[in-house]
Every structure is written in structure tokens, then in C-alpha cells.
Amino acid sequence: MSRPDIDYDTHSHDLREGAVTSHPTAGKASDDSKGFVFGLVAMVLAALAMSISPSLVRLADVGPFASAFWRVFLALPILWIWMRYAEAAEPAAPRASFTLATVLAGMAFTGDLFFWHISILRTTIANATFFATMAPLWVVIFGWLLLRQRVSRATLVGLLVCLAGGTALVVQSLAFNPSRAVGDGLAVVTGAFFGLYFLAVGAARGRTNAARVTFELSVVTAALLFLVAIFFEPRILPQSASGWGVLLALGLISHAGGQGLVSVALGRLPTVFSSLVIFLETIAAALFAWILFGENVTLIQALGGIIIVAGIWISRPRSE
Question: What phi and psi, each to the nearest 5 degrees, are found at residue 106?
Fold first, then answer.
């Protein structure tokens, strides 16, 4: 009678060992899947939050450099509260302060806003946003040149498809127009800085949490943009309550919301794929420009939006 009991106990122990050894793998896969979905949702929301910024910049009653400064400065209290809350919730989490990557992210974002806010006023919103959201191309180029990073074939195909869709969005205004040439060129430069920003934030997220990265890079950016605004702008303060309202919306929605969610997503998604999701900003910005400024969305542009979504789907990360 004892022998069957021993066999049964041994078999049960083996089953329990099997359960113990298999569950962590299943649990890790489940956690990775949840992290990917959470990061993807965060990046989509970030694209939507940032897509309203070109329209808000046009509505502001201050110059482009002043609006860029207020965009970041007004978001600092919210970002500081977020940082304190996040670190209180996870006191043991790493919190390296003002790392080199964070400082570089702040400098890259300064360049991004410096050129983008000018380009918004010198070309169409669709053009400015499209060229600015070519960041994935620059992420691939700079990632390879500076960090020797390689991307998969699916990612490259997805990038090309997204670029084709983005081109369809702005095809009507891509014809050479001397009055918009400067604005288009500045938007291209914006995209290069945005690509550097993605790489720097991705590196910074390896040392600390999203809230601290976003707050500290914003401190760097606000300080630099304040100097730029003082030097270039005839006045910095808005002249009306509605002017303050526009800047507040720019700070809370586009910066605190948009850049904060980018930092969250970059801790969970590959950098190149994250930058591709930002192409959704082009679609949303075109819709806002249509609603607020009458920049009509044609059938070809709508098709371009669908192509962008297809490109993001093609480039999605795949498990080994």
C-alpha cells in the first residue's frame, strides 16, 4: 500500500515542479504582452495629445519661441507632481537624476520645438506635422550611425509604408511653393531633432522612471527656451485670457500629456516602433487643421491615413 503512495507523491511533486517551472514563463509572456499593449495605448494617446499643438501654436497671441517656452514651463508643476507620486508609489525603483541621456533629451527637444514652432507658421499644418513626424527615419539613421543599432526587415517595410501614407496626406501641398519652402525645410530639421529626442529618452528610461525623465528633460528645455524667447521675442507674456488659455492647453495637453506618455511608452516599446506610432499625429493634426482652419481632407489624404495604420501594423514587434 505504501508503494503506490510513494509513486503518487513523487508524481505529484513532479507535476508541482512542472507547474512551478512553467508558470514563470507563461507569467512573463503575459506581463510582456500587457506591457506592450499598455505602451502602445500610451503612444497612441501621446500622438493624439501632440497633434493639437500645431493648431494651438497658430491660435496663440505670442510668438513661436514664447509659445514654445510656455508650452514646457506651464507643464512643469504637473510633471513634478507626477514624479513625486510615481516615486512615492515605488520607493525602491531607480531614480538617477539628470543623467547625460536626460540632459541630451532636453537639448534635442529644445531644437525640436525651436524649429517646429517656426515651421508651423510658415507652411501648412499637414506639411509641418508630416515632416516633423519623419522622426522614425532619423531614429533608424542615427541609431545605426551613433549606436550601431539594426532594425528588422518588417520594421523597414513598415517605415516605408508609413512614409508613403504620410506623403499621400500632404501630396496636394508638396508641390514646390516658394512661400512654404522655408517652413517645409524647418520641419525637416524638426524631424531630425525629434529622432534624437526619441533615442535619448529611450536611453534615459533605462536609468530611471518615465516621470523623472519627463520632468527633468522639461526643466532643461524650459531653461533653454526661456533664453531663446528673451533674445528673439519682442514680448513673452500673452495679452488676453484666451491667450493664456491656449498656452495652458498647449502645456497640459501637448507637453505634460503628450511627452509624458511618450516617456511611458518608451519604457515598454522598441524605440523605432514607438516613433512609427507617432505617425498617427499626422492624421490627427490634419483632422484638427480641417476643423479649425478649413484645410480640407481629401480622399487621397484619407487613404494615406489608412496606409499609415497599415505600416504601423506591419512594423509591430514580433515575439521570437
Answer: -65, -40
Tell me how far apart the alpha carbons of residues 63 and 235 are, in angstroms, rounded to a whole number: 8
Q: How far is CA 23 from the centre of its chain?
A: 34
pLDDT digit string (tens) for 73-111? 999 999 999 999 988 888 877 778 899 999 999 999 999
Comparing C-alpha atoms, which of 222, 278, 217 is closest to residue 83?
Answer: 217
Task: State the DSSP string of 256-318.
Answer: IIIIHHHHHHHTTS-HHHHHHHTTHHHHHHHHHHHHHH-----HHHHHHHHHHHHHHHHT---
In the three-class reduction of DSSP (H, G, I as helix; E, B as strand; rest coil), residue 208 is classed as strand
Is the separation of the CB atoms in 189 and 32 below 8 Å? no
Please report how the helices 280-293 and 2-51 are oriented relative to each other, as an axis angle in degrees rounded to 10. 40
Name the residue ranges covered by the structural domains of the chain.
37-314
CA distance 257 to 294: 26
Whole-structure pTM value:
0.76
Closest-CA residue to 83 (of 221, 205, 212): 212
C-alpha angle 203-156-308 in degrees, rounded to nearest 5: 95
